[in-house]
């Protein structure tokens, strides 16, 4: 279930840094809600607001989004220490607030500085959501995606996608994707399909933007691999590796860009003949884990 207020809060996320900067001007320091979280249990909050659990859930979801935005933009530590408790409280107050499970899982799973870098916790949040909303094939779909995208567990991902395919109204392609994961063990094409589905299914906001970035990362890795192949052809032709990637252009072996999709030049390791996304690029991420069997 996605309530209009919950969606509105996510659409307001870009305003959070601006609003916080105004607070900083007066306070002289960004505190990013690093103050004490006085109540660490959804049950404690529920007891304080009997009959108003949905309203309290919306308030805590707003606080979650503000905390995440503040940590991501302003905090030096970026440890997101309060993120999991805030998501847990929100979803305990309203177990059917589907948007909190989806976004909370992304916030927790994405690598720093984009997220908390704790994919196991993100998956636990999605599992909590599938227990609370067993009829939601989309939540189960996300759970399958996360097993593959963040843990590289193709077998478990395929099993969860099969479960999602059994639910009423589920997308027809879930079973096909599950079979593909089992047959090939998962690859970059499967990742691209998952991120594209998440992009297509998401409203404007953090989740859609995150999927767009992930697709740009995959496309940039494809481009880097193609340039690496050109390096190998150059070596076979000239008996040495190029000293600089520009030599590929002069030799006619590469005519495309030598930058990633953000326009940052690729890193070239001449000793290995390998081209990759530069660590200076916003698109750089550690290589994903190999898909498990």
List keywords for this structure.
two-stranded antiparallel ribbon, 293 residues, elongated, 2 strands, mainly alpha
What is the beta-strand fraction? under 5%
Q: What's the pLDDT, averaged over the residues?
A: 85
The secondary-structure class comes to mainly alpha
* Biggest sheet strand line-up: 1-2
Helix/strand order: HHHHHHHHHHHHHEE
In which range does the helix fraction lie? Answer: 55-70%
Low-pLDDT residue intervals, each spanning 5 or more residues: 9-36
Describe the global form: elongated
How large is the count of helical segments? 13
Radius of gyration, whole Å: 22 Å
Largest sheet: 2 strands, antiparallel
Taking the alpha carbons of the first and last residues, their distance comes to 34 Å
